[in-house]
Amino acid sequence: MIASQSRDYVETGPRAAPASFHTRASSRANLRAENSVPRLIACIDDGEMARSISSHALAIACSLGLEVTFARVIDAPGQFASPADPIEWQLRRRAQQDSLRHFAGRKETQVVANSVLLAGAPAQELSDWALEHGGTMLATGRRRSEDGKGLGSTAMSLLERGEHSLLLIPPGSERDAGYRRILVPVDGSDRGDAVLPVARRIARTHGADLIFVHVVPQLELNGKGQGGQIHHLSSELHKHRERCGIEHLETLRRRSQEDGVGVRTIIRGPGDPRSILRDVAVSEQIDLIVMASHGVTGLSDVACGSVAEYLAGHSPTPLLIVRPNLRCSFGPEVADCRNQSAFRFDG
Question: For residues 173 and 316, what is the distance between their CA atoms, to the nearest angstrom?
């Protein structure tokens, strides 16, 4: 199905100051349009990553039955101290609209695609438009960085706002051969396991294998003068956690294989889940990571957990961070880009 359309959504008036995380979280349900179509919003700019972002956004949207809206944010007139020339601004606006229509009208597009041009502060404009128009998730690129911390200001702001699931794409992530290996971190929490239907749908659509990875956390026990006992206790706790992790991985593997998805399991540790997951992504040549924004130790009143935050800036491969208010069904329907969206929102 190829469908394209173009919309203009240029906000030139002043915006209110950003609300706190708690205030925004409590008003999400009111901001979402009742009849809005679930969509993935691909944040496109003039950079070299535009085609890569587009490719990954279309691939994920195809798997999950989402429309794709290609979005770009330009400076609003009068946003800065020096006033913009109105003719020059209109010419720039028209050029950006034409560029967005190019992405939305690509012949290989198998999902409903459209475009929108926004004006103002990028993160706020993208987030507000998504809330008002059924934005299920946003896709944006990461910048190249020598120290590995590749989140730009817009991606960081979207992550900190905690309002949407995010697909973060690092430089050099051209999707030529499709997804073959999808990594899913498993920590034993209900919130972590809630992303499995999302990962399974993506894997089945692209014929990919799922790789479930559980990292046994490093224990820190303090006990002065009881070195031998502390060491023994630490060893026993590690073995217990490892056994529980193996049993949980096996349960998830069986469930996924029953749904017709190939699965491998990996257990690592004890150690820091953040660096271990990154190393596994490199060694296993992972094409995509799908994980929950909050895990077993994540606090519900913060935008995301420490592992998700670390991988957002350090993952060597595209990372899909799924918010806890997102639910995805997984049924027996044939994998197809024209399937009805499997998503719904809770609150």
Answer: 9
The contacts found for 17-20 with CB under 8 angstroms, 24 or more apart, are 18/124, 18/161
pLDDT at 74 over 50: yes
| 268 in Cβ contact with 204 (< 8 Å) | no
Q: What is the pLDDT averaged over residues 220-240?
A: 69
pLDDT class of 329 with cuts at 50, 70, 90 = low
Q: What is the CA radius of gyration of the chain?
A: 21
pTM: 0.82
Domains of the chain: 3-345 (3.40.50.12370)
pLDDT at residue 9 greater than cutoff 70: no
Indicate if the pLDDT at residue 24 is higher than 70. no
Q: Which own/partner contact pairs does 277-285 have at CB distance under 8 Å and 24+ positions apart?
A: 277/183, 277/185, 277/213, 277/215, 277/307, 277/311, 278/310, 278/311, 278/314, 278/315, 278/316, 280/183, 280/211, 280/213, 281/183, 281/315, 281/316, 281/317, 282/316, 284/181, 284/183, 284/211, 285/181
